[in-house]
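[step 3/7] fold_predict: job queued, chain A
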Amino acid sequence: MRTLSALALLFIPLFASADCTEHLPTWARSLQPDLKLDSEHAVCKINPGNPRQTLAALPLAENVDADGQGEYGLGVVVADTATGKIIARHYERSAIVSDAVYFDSLVLDTARYQLAPGLRAFGVRISHLGSSRVNPSSSKQLNLYVLEGQTLRPVMDTLQVSSSSADWDGTCNGDFTQAERTISIADKSKNGLASLQVEQKVIHIKSVAKGDDCKDVERTPVVSRFTLEYDGKHYPVPAALSSN
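[step 4/7] structure written:
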């Protein structure tokens, strides 16, 4: 019974701070007191790899017009779950651009990016959507961060993990392309951190009008693989993987 009581007391702070969104304005002011937080797109969650930590990604308007177009800085925070106190932070200026291809969302990626014993990275995914009806597009970009003591350090950025594009007549005829990239941890390492294996799958579809029907013809998916190696500071992302 004593053990159960102790466990109950242990989890009270976690439950009390479960709604981490209440801390977002405070964290934003701590990062950049003169910039406005885009609260619609800011996100936070308890870190499943370490529930004592809460992770957050905060877009801050640096040069943004009334329609939300322009440049946003990206603040990433690791905070104490029980108190909301910031443990470590990182801020990147002009990290997000919103224009005809507009900034759509942020997602915290807490997959098991175990880069070394005792060192697990987490990610922030940045999504964009194109506004053209006949040339629609979408993309998701992944950045990875590691916490080293009280330092939050980016180790990879601009890896495009998914994209789609199309060129069609708005009714049926046209070409569609979709690319998906998945990441796994390689068995080998370099400069102290595991290498990252990226598998890319690209699908091309052609739509053709036949009478009253619209027929899709899908080509055989093209699968390719890449390895990203740590250079001592970060994982360089080749141009082929930072775009579709």
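[step 5/7] annotate
Residues 1-99 form one domain.
The chain has two helices and 13 strands.
exit 0
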